[in-house]
Amino acid sequence: MRRLLRIFTLRRLLMVVILVVSVGFVSGLWVRVNAIGHVYSEQDVPSAPVALVLGAKVEPSGEPSGFLLARLEIAQRLLAAGRVRVVLVSGDHGAYVYDESGTMRRWLIDRGAPAQQVVADHAGFDTYDSCQRAKRIFGVDHAIVITQSYHIKRAVSVCRAAGIETDGVGDDTARVFTPYWRHAFIREQGADVKALWDVLSHRDPVFLGRHETDVEDALKG
Q1: Entry's Pfam families (predicted)?
Q2: Which CATH number describes the domain made up of 38-202?
Q3: Span 32-44, pLDDT tens digits
Q4: What is the pTM of this model?
């Protein structure tokens, strides 16, 4: 009897493992397929009206982390070169003392970006929320999304699923932060599953709110 119970338990465990692996494979495949032809180097990415910079950690000092700094530098160069006309910085400002989007906006303006061309989304709590809000709140239809290279395919796929014509540029310079890069790369595998679930469930962002015209006004100017 114990042997039969052990066999039954092992079979159930095997089925769970197979299910988890299958879900991970399907999610990863969805991300890769939907990003085909839409990930570029900074030099080769086609121009777009808007650059969407996804948020990342801000240090306790108030300075962008190495990962976030690399994203901002790409956006700064694209804006200065006229490859984009507006930068939408989207990050976590869920607590008064922690402000990714405000930090990003100040960093760009302090380095010469015109204030009216840098718009902050303070409720970009994850990639899905940032893409959905870019489309539904800020009216973005065409954008270059900017993040690290391990994340760029997911970002492109999620933004395209939101109805934005999206190309992406992924930073590789932050690889010098080896332990953090390795951890983020591993975490990304599970994030693919969440991304597909978010897209299939059509969930609303954590905070939706009213329509904002800042991006549209900047594009008209």
Answers
A1: DUF218 (PF02698)
A2: 3.40.50.620
A3: 999 999 999 999 9
A4: 0.91
